Amino acid sequence: MKLKQLTGAIAIATSLLACGTAFAAGPTNAEYYPFAEIMSMKMIDKNKDGMVSKKEFMDMMTMAWEMNTKKMGGKPDMMTDAQFKEFLMYLKAGS
């Protein structure tokens, strides 16, 4: 059942990114992590209840956004076309 929920969450993330949806950005002191690690249950399930909530998932996607915009030297709340394409490559590398 947990695998089914995680698979569904990943499918939602892929759909949102395919639509070009930007995630709400908030302050974070995140280091750089590979996307596959970010999408692990260990990283997403912050309250360790064995389930991924929408908030936990969106918080992790926000962290991925912020890590990459910082790495690319862009504005924290926006990406250029080239930066967004680089961000999508980051996401694809983790799949």
TrEMBL record:
The secretion signal range is 1-24
Keyword Signal assigned:
yes
List each copy of the EF-hand domain by range: 41-67
Under Pfam families, the record lists: EF-hand_1
Q: Which UniProt keywords apply?
A: Signal
For the keyword Hydrolase, the answer is: no
Task: Output the Gene Ontology terms for molecular function.
Answer: calcium ion binding
Its name, as the record gives it, is EF-hand domain-containing protein
Q: Which organism is it from?
A: Caenimonas aquaedulcis
